[in-house]
């Protein structure tokens, strides 16, 4: 099968010598064996220990500087997650239904339903750290510009969560409607869990922002700033209707998907 050029394996180049893909052999049968689940469990357990170490290290930094601690924690999670998506091959986990792009694939950051579940869990972890760091910070009067930025972050994140959930229905083979509620399987449970964690992450972010707004001495200015941000978001949604956030990465993901699909496989026009 074909893998990204950053993976290990023989390199395939074109006539001009430019690298195209790397080849990787699928060893063993295609059925899901217990060793794959064991390997996945050990991988997730190692990731949990890394996150716990980052939490403890950045918590001590957040006591001195909340902003520095939050940036360090979120930045480290982003770099680690992006490195896994870019460098770690999807095999053999793509033999599992939740990591199979045929079940769900929306972008480079969301190549499978399992990756959506992992990303949602990391978002919940990030918002929990943000909430913990800022709730115990010293009281400071925020400027109207910073309050406006907070309102914009809430609105943009809400739009992204909504668009991701819509994409989960449009770009997946998982039945999430009420007509198939009696036939829920592991993929459906993972999809519902992802939706729940995305909502939880946004609610934690909103709770943190409300707590910061409540400590502000300019409550009227906070409400006016929020009204301006909400009013400004309305024409943005009218000018760029639909999945305007997800469309930013569609072109890049199509190129990446073409390079990572098995050689000889046909392109599915129904995929993004």
Written description of the protein model:
- The protein is mostly helical and 272 residues long.
- It is 60% helix and 4% strand.
- It has seven helices and three strands; from the N terminus they run βββααααααα.
- A three-stranded antiparallel β-sheet has the order 1-3-2, with no helix packed on it.
- β2 and β3 (19-23) form a beta hairpin.
- α2 runs antiparallel to α3 (113-135).
- The radius of gyration is 21 Å and the shape is globular.
- The two termini are 21 Å apart.
- The model is unreliable at 246-272 (pLDDT under 50).
The main pleated sheet reads as: 3 strands, antiparallel
Q: How far apart are the termini?
A: 21 Å
**Which regions have little confidence, pLDDT < 50, spanning 5+ residues?**
246-272
- Counted by DSSP, the helix tally is 7
Write down how many β-strands occur, each being a DSSP E stretch of 2 or more residues. Answer: 3
Range of strand content? under 5%
Rg, Cα atoms, Å? 21 Å
Name the quaternary structure.
single chain
Question: Could you spell the SSE succession in H and E letters?
Answer: EEEHHHHHHH
Give the neighbour order of strands across the main sheet.
1-3-2
Based on Cα principal axes, name the global outline: globular
Q: What does the average pLDDT come to?
A: 76
State the share of residues found in helices, binned by percent.
55-70%
- Given helix and strand content, the structural type is mainly alpha
């Amino acid at each position: 099968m074909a893998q990204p050029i950053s993976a290990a394996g023989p390199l395939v180049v074109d006539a001009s010598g430019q690298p195209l893909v790397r080849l990787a052999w699928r060893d063993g049968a295609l059925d899901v064996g217990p060793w794959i689940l064991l390997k996945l469990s050990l991988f997730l357990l190692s990731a949990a220990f890394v996150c716990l170490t980052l939490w403890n290290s950045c918590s001590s930094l957040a006591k001195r500087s909340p902003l520095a601690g939050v940036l360090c924690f979120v930045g480290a999670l982003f770099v680690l997650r992006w490195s896994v998506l870019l460098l770690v091959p999807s095999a053999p986990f793509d033999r599992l239904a939740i990591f199979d792009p045929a079940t769900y694939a929306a972008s480079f950051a969301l190549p499978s339903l399992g990756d959506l579940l992992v990303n949602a869990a990391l978002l919940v972890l990030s918002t929990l750290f943000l909430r913990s760091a800022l709730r115990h910070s010293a009281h400071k009067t925020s400027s109207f510009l910073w309050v406006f930025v907070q309102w914009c972050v809430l609105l943009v994140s809400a739009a992204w969560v909504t668009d991701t959930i819509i994409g989960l229905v449009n770009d997946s083979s998982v039945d999430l409607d009420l007509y198939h509620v009696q036939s829920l399987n592991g993929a459906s449970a993972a999809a519902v869990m992802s939706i729940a964690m995305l909502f939880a992450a946004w609610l934690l972010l909103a709770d943190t922002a409300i707590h910061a707004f409540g400590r502000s001495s300019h409550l009227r200015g906070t409400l006016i700033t929020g009204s301006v941000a909400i009013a400004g978001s309305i024409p943005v949604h009218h000018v760029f209707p639909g999945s305007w956030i997800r469309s930013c990465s569609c072109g890049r993901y199509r190129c990446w998907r073409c390079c990572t699909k098995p050689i000889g496989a046909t392109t599915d026009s129904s995929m993004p």
